[in-house]
Amino acid sequence: MTEKLLPLTALQEMMGHRSKSAIYADIKNGDFPKPIKIGSRQVRWRLSEILTWLEEKTKERDAA
After folding, report:
1. What CA–CA distances, in Å, run from 15 to 30, 31, 40?
2. Which runs of consecutive H residues, i.e. helices, occur in the chain?
3. What is the pLDDT of residues 19-39, one digit of tens each?
4. Which residues contact residue 49 at a Cβ distance below 8 angstroms, ignoring those fewer than 6 apart?
5. pLDDT, tens digit, 9 for 90 and up, residues 41-50
6. pLDDT of residue 64
7. What is the CA radius of gyration of the chain?
8. Distances in whole angstroms, Cα of residue 3 to Cα of each of 33, 37, 45, 49, 63
9. Contacts of range 13-22, beta carbons closer than 8 Å, 24 or more positions apart
10. Quick one: DSSP state of residue 8?
11. Longest CA span, the chain
């Protein structure tokens, strides 16, 4: 099965309409999964990595 790749717009919607700059700031800080470059000006995020990240954040919240 092929991994689903999310464009920035779909990722932003999934993340509650977070801004592009906020997402990239979190990536720079190591707090968010890095995208995969698929073209000279195109990137995508692996859905599985985003879902894993969300699960980890949920566990952190519940442990607090």
Report:
1. 17, 14, 25
2. 8-14, 20-28, 47-63
3. 999 999 999 999 999 999 999
4. 33
5. 999 999 999 9
6. 85
7. 12
8. 15, 15, 10, 10, 30
9. 14/50
10. H
11. 41
Per the structure block, which two tokens stand in for 3?
């991994």
Buried b (16+ CB within 10 A) or exposed e, 31-57: ebbebeeeeeeeebbbeebbeebeeee
pLDDT at 1: 61
Q: Do 15 and 48 touch, CB atoms closer than 8 A?
A: no
Q: In this structure, what token pair is assigned to residue 20?
A: 């592009």
Question: What is the percent of the chain with per-residue pLDDT over 70, rounded to a whole number?
Answer: 98
Query: SS3 of 36, please?
Result: strand
